[in-house]
Amino acid sequence: MTGKKKIVKSIKIDVDKCNGCRACEVICSALHAAPPYSSSNPARSRIRVIRDPLADIYVPVYAGEYTAAECAGRDRYTIDGKQYEECAFCRASCPSRDFFKEPDSGLPLKCDMCESDPSVTEPMCVQWCLADALTYEEREEEVEPEVGVEDVDVGLEALANKYGWQTVLDSVARISKKA
Description:
Layout: E1 5-13, H1 23-31, E2 47-52, E3 57-62, E4 76-79, E5 82-85, H2 124-128, E6 134-142, H3 149-163, H4 165-178
Antiparallel strand pairs: 1-6, 2-3, 4-5
């Protein structure tokens, strides 16, 4: 039995081609400015280039999902003799660092593959990357079955056991007002 399929969009990164020009950051922040293209602030970009110009190392990383918890990964990697923390290459917006957060509000940023502009057929960072370090890809994947009500109940019960029902109810009420 085959399930439903969905299109998964991603940006493939070839770090050997990246020259650190940061054009991807500039165009991303310009597209997401209000109104679009009215300003450019790379701190608002959904893609960042991790840089070590003296060692000629540039690693583009685009924003992934928000996570409310800090990760346990604190490994260090050595690239050309320089040590990097695992966080440097992480795509998540999380409480332990300022990457991928809106500078004014602190809200998490996530790459939307430039779908906020219907006229854009592939992400602007890919289009503007003159070194061809970024490549847009689409692939089909099977969709996981829908989360059942019992799964939600188990999750809520776990939250209630940890924080108390009143805290959970207050959070749900606060979140529902935003929607």
